[in-house]
Amino acid sequence: MTHTTNPDRAFTPSGQLRLGVFFQSVNSGTIWKSADSGSQTDFESFLRIAQTAERGLFSAFFLGEGLRLREHLGRPHALDVAGRPDAQTALAALAAVTTHIGLVATQNTTYNDPADLAHRLSSLDLISGGRAAWNIVTTDNAWTGANFRRGGYLDHADRYVHAEAFVETAKRIWDAWDDGAIAPSASADRWAAPGAVRRVRHTGQHYAVDVTPRLPRSAQYRPVLFQAGDSPDGRDFAARQADVIFSAHPQLEDALQFRSDIVDRTLKAGRGANDVKIMPASEFILGATPREALEKKAWVRELQIGPQQAIAYLEQFWGRELQGFDPDGPLPEIDPVVEETSETRGSGFHGAKARQLADQWRAEAKDKGLSIRQFVSARTSRGDSTFTGSYAEVSDRLGEYARTGAVDGFNISPWLIPSGLDDIVNHLVPALQERGVYPAEYAGTTLRENLGLATPARPDATADPAGPVDPASRAATARA
Ligand SMILES: Cc1cc2nc3c(=O)[nH]c(=O)nc-3n(C[C@H](O)[C@H](O)[C@H](O)COP(=O)(O)O)c2cc1C
Hints:
The protein is an alpha/beta fold. The protein folds into 2 domains: about 20-180 and about 195-290 and about 385-475, Luciferase-like domain (TIM Barrel, Alpha-Beta Barrel); about 305-380, no CATH class. It contains 15 helices and 13 strands. It has helices spanning about 45-55, 85-95, 115-125, 140-145, 160-175, 230-240, 250-270, 290-305, 305-320, 355-370, 370-380, 390-405, 420-435, 445-450, 470-480, and strands at about 20-25, 60-65, 70, 75, 100-110, 130-135, 200-205, 210, 225, 245, 275-285, 385-390, 410. The strands form 3 sheets. An 8-stranded parallel barrel has the order 1-2-5-6-9-10-11-13, surrounded by 7 helices. Strands 3-4 form a two-stranded antiparallel sheet. A hairpin with a 4-residue loop joins strand 7 (about 200-205) and strand 8. The two termini are about 25 Å apart. Flavin mononucleotide binds near residues 66 and 106. Flavin mononucleotide (FMN) binds near residues 66 and 234.
């Protein structure tokens, strides 16, 4: 593991914010029904969002990953992310038509293999001139696993043990070429200097690697590492391994608590208090006046959760057809089908709790006098992560985040593609710049520079380069 040699013990707010854009596909947060909705899959949409983001000096363009389309009762469940092109393919195309914005690919540690993924991420990093990043996720379930040779092979508790061995192996692969390994001129004898490339071997519980990495270091040394996963194990993993956390804590009080928790964990991991940046997921609904923003919010919600979407949302939890129910009437009195598997039925669903959940929701809806549509709209409102208001109001609120150091920036999900960043870049960014909390230009050409991240410490080339890295094989080595 690489870390700073003299870690800062105290966290110091930078007073600055950075922005990223999380391009979603079709889900309950996006509007595909408006006359202004463009394609969620055409390259033109990716291009327009990335170029708008770059005009607004955004640090990063993110793509999520869903390895199997969720279904419900045998049909694609359109309320979850659907129609998402492969992240690295889309980002490689964007690398050619952008110059500064970072390109972040969400990639899973459970179903990928480290030597292969490290090589593909290195490729993106090299062809983009040092702008690649990996958003590390650990999602595993039998539904997704059925799509892969190994199946859903990993115990839930093992996800982060596996992820850690995976990431440490990837780091060793990226470390394996020394600086200056490539011939500086045509008169050199060899393209790669002898001894400047090391072989990486690893035999662990979940996979084995024996590889001589094929690519040199990039302009930013190696891809930047983001992490998304909120459990205590996920946070400790991020504290040890990540450069940036893509968090789920955008509200100020919650964000401050999350920061303090991450600083504690980062210090325990032997790193500096400022070493891990935090960028929460967020949505912005803005207007010239507070009233305009509120009107826009009502319009956005109406389109995000129409009658069909409201019924489909409940069907995930009820596990049965509910098409006969009136979206403007009360929640269904019939009970959920408990036996249905959970993976196809929406995140957070737990089969055994289905009846309890239905009772609870019916009581809540009755209590508040909410129809199916109003109830679903409230549940999916993303209230916690939505910033609604005039440009001035919202930039004042964001200024508070910069001042307190609650976050290092926001990862914005536009609800409309491809114009969803226009008002943010045209109005919010200048307002943030006026308040002195947003950069006036890119700090450099690499993502690491633009996020204010230090270059990783060079590895000790004399240390055993082929030693085992995961806890199981460390223990085996100790016993031998
Ligand atoms: C903000 C955020 C974004 C995420 N994006 C993805 C994604 O695009 N694809 C994916 O498979 N998992 C994604 N995840 C899921 C995590 O990788 C992880 O599987 C999940 O949060 C459960 O891990 P935990 O128990 O540590 O929270 C995301 C999680 C968070 C918090």
